[in-house]
Amino acid sequence: MTAQGGPERHEDVLAAVDATGLLVRTLRSSQGVELSYAGTPTASLMMFINALAKRLRQLQPTHVVMCWDGPRSRAWRQEIWPGYKAARPDQHDHPVEQTRQYEFCASAGLRQIMVPGFEADDIMAAVCRAALTQHPGAQVVLVSDDQDMLQLLGANWTGPVLVPLMGDGVTTGADVEIAWGVEPSLLPRVRALAGDASDGIPGLPGIGPKTAARIITEASGKWPLPGSVLPDPKDRDLVVRWRDVSELRTPPRYPENETGTDHFRLGETARWDPAAAGRNIQDFLDRYGFARISARLSRGVLW
Q1: What is the mean pLDDT of each successive set of 10 residues along the chain, which is 303 residues long?
Q2: Rounded CA gap, 169 and 248, in Å?
Q3: Beta bridge partners of residue 18, listed in sequence order
Q4: Is the peptide bond preceding residue 41 cis, with omega within 30 degrees of 0?
Q5: In terms of Cα–Cα distance, which of 239, 231, 234, 235 is closest to 195?
Q6: Is the dihedral of CA 70, 172, 53, 57 positive or negative?
Q7: Which of 10, 193, 195, 255 has CB atoms 3.0–4.6 Å from 139's, for a disulfide?
Q8: Interacting residues of 297 by C-beta distance below 8 A, sequence separation 6+
């Protein structure tokens, strides 16, 4: 599900990065890697910096927002569906690691947003809404491995696109329609019917993604699904709850409503200056003994 080629260059490129996802990904990748400096383990931090720098180098964004899970980020969804992400560890289980990564982003001049009670997904969706409103014509790039982000994509290169945290490729809304049989905004309904094991959503028995797409198409846009499409009222109630915990475009709760829309204003606060970042991170790199990253920075090839 990867588009060939790439988007045309826009005047503004706004990158919303799943910082929590990158933290978790690099923590997992660094397990068993023996790397430390002055007694401090540094493997996951080094991987975080390298992966982020690679993405910034490739995208050359004019604006960047690092999006983090806030405290109790799953609580309101678990009130709707107790099984939501029940089997997945919380990123706040690694407070020391998050503090270091957060400090690096701050030293690099990267705008960071964390709102208590909301996940990084919610923040990315809010940033996406703000970017589309405040910067019409800009290319919005969502940097994440989370498939929930697919629901935010636009058609071809005319709307938000998705790139992975560490791999290659670009996914557009057109790719989503080919792979799933529905437009991106309807993916939460597909997942509600077919299930999403990673998020703890069981789905209805005997319904896979293709059947779910057919059911949704037969409903002709009606939501909740009518009894003629899904006869059992208990099933209809469950599907509504599962869709609500998966929804990012029009969720039951918006971060903007809790913080105010100014919190997501993406003007100069989110503008990123690679040259200034290079000057400001040197002390941080020295503190953790990242000589190779420093060398790439001094040669102008880090980002």
Answers
A1: 50 96 94 93 96 97 97 96 87 74 97 96 97 92 97 82 94 95 96 96 97 95 94 97 97 96 92 95 97 97 96
A2: 23
A3: 67
A4: no
A5: 239
A6: negative
A7: 10
A8: 278, 281, 282, 285
| Residue that has been written with the tokens 């690691």 in this structure | 97
CA distances, 235 to each of 157, 192, 213, 225, 283 (Å): 37, 10, 16, 10, 57
Structure tokens at 74: 């799953």
Within 8 A by CB and 6+ apart from 266, the residues are 14, 63, 65, 111, 127, 130, 131, 134, 135
Q: CA-CA distance, 136 to 235, in Å (whole number)? A: 40
Separation between Cα atoms, residue 209 and residue 200, nearest integer Å = 16
pLDDT of the residue at 4: 45
**Hunting for tokens 């982003």 — which residue is that?**
105
Give me 207's structure tokens: 């319904």
The residues of the chain that CATH labels 3.40.50.1010 are: 13-177+249-298
pLDDT computed for residue 155 by the predictor: 67
**What is the layout of strands, in order, in the sheet containing 63-68?**
111-114, 63-68, 13-18, 139-143, 161-163
Residue 195: partners with Cβ closer than 8 Å, 6 or more residues away: 201, 202, 203, 204, 207
CATH 3.30.70.260 assigned to 13-177+249-298: no
List the structure tokens of 106.
């701050």
pTM tops 0.85: yes
For residue 80, CA distances in Å to 73, 116, 269 come to 13, 18, 34
Q: Cβ distance 63 to 13 under 8 Å?
A: yes
DSSP conformation class of 76: H
Bridge partners (DSSP) of residue 140 are 14
Residues of the chain with CATH 1.10.150: 184-246
